[in-house]
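User: Some background: our group keeps a shared notebook of sequences we're curious about, and every so often someone picks one and asks for a predicted structure to add to the entry. Today it's my turn. The entry only has the sequence so far, pasted here. Could you supply the structure so I can complete it?
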Amino acid sequence: MASSSLVSSGALVVLEELSPSSPHFNHGASLRVTGKLQEYVVETAEAVIADGSATLKVCTQFLSLNFRVGSMYQFIGELFIQPNTEVLLKARVGRNVDGMDLNLYRQSLQLLREFQGEQTPKLNS
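Assistant: Of course. Here's the predicted structure to add to the notebook entry:
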């Protein structure tokens, strides 16, 4: 299988980190994001998730989920940056994560990043 046909697992990103200065803020970047569902429009299959003060619009047209406003969801998909600088995640995977301890999730994400940072120099030597 050619490497160009591989599907990325999605970089773990906290919504508040997803800004134009972020290294993940690239058109077509594969991301994994988590947030509370603020709104869902059935006609357009678009959801808006929030984490803290940050929000993200998510296209869910390829998903088969029952959405409930106020529930927690995690999505993996590709980031699309519109010409008007509107940002949209086109989700290919989604799941309800009600009950997830977001503080513990953020702590584990920080520890994972620290571990990966320690491993990178070892791989380059």
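Suggested note for the entry: Residues 12 and 32 are 5 Å apart (CA to CA). The chain has a mean pLDDT of 88.
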